[in-house]
Write a structure and sequence with these properties.
With 91 residues, this protein is mainly alpha-helical. It is built from 4 helices and no strands.
C-alpha cells in the first residue's frame, strides 16, 4: 500500500511538472501580455487539460495492469460505439 501511494505521488508530480506542461506554462507566463482575454483563457484551459490528462494517464498506469488498462480502453470504446448508435437511431 505504501509503495502504491508513493508511486501515485510520483506519477502526480511527473504529470504536473513534466517538460510539456512546463513549456506550456512558460509560454502562457511569457505571452500573457500579448494575448487577448479569449486567447489567454484558451491557453489556460489547454494547460489545465494537459495537466489533468497527463496525471490521469500516469495514475491509471500505476493502478492498473497492462491487461486491465487494455480492458478499460475496450470498455470505453464499446460505450462510445453504443452511444453513437443510440444517438444515430434517434435522428
Amino acid at each position: 500500500m505504501l509503495s502504491t501511494a508513493s508511486a501515485l505521488l510520483e506519477a502526480t508530480q511527473e504529470g504536473i511538472i513534466g517538460d510539456e506542461q512546463m513549456e506550456l506554462a512558460s509560454f502562457i507566463v511569457n505571452a500573457r501580455h500579448e494575448l487577448d482575454q479569449e486567447q489567454f483563457s484558451k491557453a489556460m484551459f489547454m494547460y489545465a487539460t494537459a495537466i489533468a490528462s497527463c496525471v490521469t494517464d500516469k495514475v491509471t498506469k500505476v493502478l492498473l495492469t497492462e491487461t486491465q488498462f487494455r480492458e478499460l480502453i475496450e470498455s470505453i470504446d464499446e460505450l462510445e460505439t453504443m452511444t453513437n448508435e443510440v444517438l444515430s437511431n434517434g435522428e
